[in-house]
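Page 47, continued from p. 46.
Same chain as before, 179 aa.
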Amino acid sequence: MTIRSVLKIGNPQLLRIAEPVKTVDLDLKQTVIQDMLDTMQAEKGAGIAAPQIGVNLRIIIFGLEKNPRYPDAEPVPMTILINPEFTPLSIDTDTAWEGCLSVPGYRGLVPRYKHIRYSGLDENGKKLERDVRDFHARVVQHEVDHLNGLLYPHRIRDLSKFGLMDELESAGLIPRVES
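Result:
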């Protein structure tokens, strides 16, 4: 079990475009993927991308049952996705509050597609494809952004809707997060 440090906003490694994974093998599963899982669990995240732990590969992991950071979110199945891609299935978007392990203590209102199809390879190199909506779709888009050198603040259209969680909670804009 290895919990890695999560890179934070301002680190130039987070702004790179990640490289495709060429081979899905045991070494990848026992090192990068396991470290991502361990780190995401330790940080109580809903998702994590390999660049967030300093690995410039196109791998994301996401999933949650209950998460204190997202108390109203519906469950999302734990998913390991290698070389992910997504396609919007509608032009409908939704704007909702997001946070990020690489932008700790902050939240911002971010527009995302409501309905997408994503695909990629699972941890065994098998094709995985799902049509998803709402929070599940939001999490996938957020994590794929990391692979393209984007953090959620880059997507915020109105910077008056970006701030410290404590201040946003005190103002009643976001629900108070239980520790």
